[in-house]
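Structure tokens
________________
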Amino acid sequence: MFKKNDIINNKFEVLFSIQSTTFGSSYRVKGKEDGKIYMLKIYEKEKLNDWHFNEKGDLIEAEIHKQIEHPNISKFVSCDLINFQKQDLYVYVVEFISGETLQERIDREGKPNITFATNLIKKIMSAVSYLHSLDTPVIHSDITPLNIMLDMSSGMLEPILIDFGLSKHKSYSTSYNSSVPSIFYCAPELFNGKYSDKSDIFSLGALYYILIEGYFPWHNKFNISDINSVDLQDKIISNRNSKLTFTAINDIDETIKLSIIKSLLSNPSSRFESIDDFHKSITKEKMISHEEIKKEEIKNVLLKKEGDGFKKIAGMQSLKDMIKDEVIDPLKDPESFKDYGIEPPNGILFYGPPGCGKTFFAECLSEEIGFNFIKVGPSDVGSKYVHGGQEKIKQLFDSAKENSPTIIFLDEIDAMIPDRESSEIGHHYASEVNEWLIQFNNCGEQDVFMIAATNKMDKIDSAVLRAGRFDRKILVPVPDIDSRKALFELYLNKRKKVLADDINLDELSKLTENYVCSDIKLIVNDASRIARKDKCKISQEMIEKIIKQTSSSISSKEISKYSENKIQKNKPSTTMGFKIPQSSSIIGKSVVMTHPSKEGEKGEVVKKNVKKDVYTIKFNEKDESDWHKNDFKII
């Protein structure tokens, strides 16, 4: 709009343009009368929003800035409304600051040392505390390294807070800076149009974090592609509900860590009451405890909404009510149970016939509780290396504790933690089972909660089932008549547009006794496919015909194995599958692996190990390792 040597408002001569902005442009100028250097911003009035003005029509930024006098805040000079080339322009002038922005310094030199960072944050805290203490308190709402100048005019770096474009009094509406990187310093309530002095506390915590870590908070939760994605704001909100971590190598004082964590809690009421409290915490004038922060972090994680939980489960209301009373409530509100001496359970094991929805039920339970969630299957912890599985198990629990509160869900636990007394398992498994047991022991005390699912209770090592590991064993039975009706209703309601009017849910549920969840889903899917092929609606007759053609996927004998009141651990009387002779007669034989970590790979038995039932198998020139006889079979 203006170029070098242009005169603005008959007062200022343009030295050069600095940048174009959303609402105008900025320049370095020289006063015509005094010859002093100033910073000048041009706002094009027609580009401004309603929230830029107060009820009198004045520019809020100028009205706020003109009343401020603090050594660490930029100094207001003037703000005039002029008409230039038939455009209404605000000419906003502040005193010149000789230096660079904090962001420019970070980009050039990287993160500063902890002493520099702490001294700087204290001075910016002083400035923001001053704003909050005015007769009409001011919320800055945009505290970022881009809005902090490092004044070098005195020979020493002095941080100066600038740009009051998003600043507000408490009675005015607000907006926020959605540009990158500024959005990473925005308090979450700003995204919902709400703000308070706690919003500035959040921004100060984010600023302190980046000064000592070199990255914005929760940076490890983002991918490069997230930065330019349309749902960046949603990702920021979601990631902030996880535990904030610090790099161990930086060796940050524990008090500073706790102070930053408290300032960055998503719930404003959980943050410091004031900037002064934040300052007293980092200077150790007012201490905060690990326990206090731990409780608040758990509440923070529970703010997450990542699914419908039990709403997705048809029927089974008595089971859901029991789990709510015995598992969910103690986990989500441990304090109210403490007076009665009730500890939250360490783990819960779902067992029952296959196809009854144990895995789905466990996943819905994790959504209902709201903790961080890690799902683990047999292949996730398998390893071809000796002790490799043990190391993976340890890493799993270390990660869970680091991001607690966490749910670890073990699907098909019988394959991961088999009975060590069984002749069917190899020495690899025995050492891994021991590692699982060590990690299970009272992991709930470190806010790690276990959920597991199995349809082979008799195959699980008995030590897993004792108190302090899996405290609750819950049968997920074959659906009863009410549950079957609810399942049909759930699956058919997804097809309302192509559903005939003669559907009788009560009759369908009577016709499917001993059918499991997966059977009912298959019946509805098959009926849908036929209806689409025939270009007609799904009718009662069509579904009943499919039921007659579809038998239950589990037998009555298998159903009878499971008892809700008593769990019996039956020892197998025979060994299933290929039995290897006790001699070394299989040397030179070709084998195929059955162990999960190498399943399907072929090799050759080259020698008998000194350990009982252990053989060396050669897979290729570079891969030769020891395996138990039950980890492979002869081909």
Notes: The radius of gyration is 33 Å. DSSP finds 20 helices and 21 strands in the chain. The first helix runs from residue 60 to 65.
